[in-house]
Amino acid sequence: MPATILLGAQWGDEGKGKATDLLSSASDIVVRCQGGNNAGHTILAGDRLLKLRLVPSGILYPHVTPVIGDGVVIDPAVLLEEMDALAAAGLEVGRVLVSGNAHLIMPYHLELDRVTERYLGKASLGTTKRGIGPAYADKAARIGLRVQDLTDPKIFRQKLDVALKEKNLVLSKVYNRLPQDSDEIAADYLAMGERLAPHIADTSARLHAALRAGRRVLLEGAQGTLLDLDHGTYPFVTSSSTVAGGLLAGAGLGPMAVDRVIGVSKAYVTRVGSGPFPTEDDGEAGRHMSETGHEFGTVTGRARRCGWFDAVLLRYAVRLSSITELFLTKLDVLSGLERLRICAAYRHADEVLHEFPAHQSVVHKVAPVYEEHEGWGEDLSAARRFEDLPAAARAYVARIAELSGAPVRWLSVGPDRDQTMEVPGP
Ligand code: GDP
Ligand code: IMO
Ligand code: MG
């Protein structure tokens, strides 16, 4: 049975937690594939509100095995704290599996994330300061420590000493910070390793076996397409590959293992952190989206920048990940705006661009070419069938699908699991 990929089609926070939770009822295994606790995925199921950072959003279903795959970077303190909180809320966390190949976020990664951002000053990226970039940098430099190293104290210590020797020079000589203590880190991490040991598994092999046995596997993306290290708005991106290919690599699956790719997108756009954002709206509409949509970061609490739906950006996401269907969220937030805009193309100098520009300088300079659409005043949050929506809302959704090149299969009109509807095909 082929697996399904679910990923963010914009700049993150599209509602992947909600969408994954919903689709998890029909999944046996849900996998986080990349990123780390820079992710904040929210689930609301009745009176239960979860804000997950590392544990996959399938955790609410007792029949689901949540898997943290090879491509994830793990801060073990955060993972253990999250599992403890979930256990305290009555959820069975013994079933969480963690890949031994996943890299560890170390205390010096956290410190380096903070000091390098400060050092960049006005050019800072606005990272989540969770050590993500420095951990992936060490992985690529082949001086990272992995989850499996926690099970071999001697090897762990050797690797730590090699890495820390260089990090302490950088911290003290370049950034004028205190060096970190190898004994302390080793003691902390090895103790956490003992707690994590029962969860460590060959997750890629487990996924292959599960697929062969006809079980349903859902890969849950973190961040979003425009934050992808290769294809996003570099350097204002995260340090992992957030597109479908990156999720496959992070889970240890090949492309033939999948037959559906669900792109999650808001009915408008948000971005947190620095970088270009062609359809950003600083006026009344942006304020409306921010306030009505409660657009504040799940991880850092920062205000998210808001703007109009951008079809150029979504077409790009559809292309990069072979998105087969869209899960459109937060349509309810647009209620009350008299006129709505959709960005259908970009203008750059005298040219109209229908594709996302390949050159970053162009992305910074483009002006959106907007279509105007009629808004609606009705509250959508109680709607459960597409036919119940006002005609203007249905037309808006249909136009998004048409311009994006993928059908809208699900529509979300509120944060709760119930506030979702399937959209009938054409
Ligand atoms: P993720 O990172 O993609 O999982 O998204 P976040 O959880 O960071 O942010 C999405 C926010 O929007 C969360 O607070 C969700 O509860 C909320 N949300 C999701 N879908 C909807 C929706 O259709 N309408 C409204 N009003 N809120 C939603
Ligand atoms: P979810 O999974 C939104 C952004 C940060 C910053 C940039 C780099 O909840 O959608 P990093 O800490 O990754 O080095 O920061 O990426 N960013 C996110 N924005 N949602 C996320 O995750 C994000 N994870 C990272 O704000 O601009
Ligand atoms: Mg989020």
What does this 3D model show about the protein?
The chain has twelve helices and 20 strands. The strands form five sheets. The chain has a ten-stranded mixed sheet, sandwiched between helices. Strands 14, 16, 17 and 18 form a four-stranded mixed sheet that branches. Helix 3 (107-120) crosses helix 4. The relative contact order is 0.15. The protein is α/β, with parallel strands linked by helices and 426 residues long. The protein folds into three domains: 3-99 and 199-260, Adenylosuccinate Synthetase, subunit A, domain 1 (Adenylosuccinate Synthetase, Chain A, domain 1), CATH 3.40.440; 103-196, Adenylosuccinate Synthetase, subunit A, domain 2, CATH 1.10.300.10; 266-422, Adenylosuccinate Synthetase, Chain A, domain 3 (Alpha-Beta Complex). The chain is globular and about 65 Å long. It starts with a strand and ends with a strand. Strand 16 (339-348) and strand 17 form a beta hairpin. The chain binds guanosine-5'-diphosphate, 6-O-phosphoryl inosine monophosphate (IMO) and magnesium ion.
List key phrases describing it.
3 domains; Adenylosuccinate Synthetase, Chain A, domain 3; alpha/beta; Adenylosuccinate Synthetase, Chain A, domain 1; 426 residues; binds 6-O-phosphoryl inosine monophosphate; Adenylosuccinate Synthetase, subunit A, domain 2; 10-stranded mixed sheet; binds guanosine-5'-diphosphate; binds magnesium ion
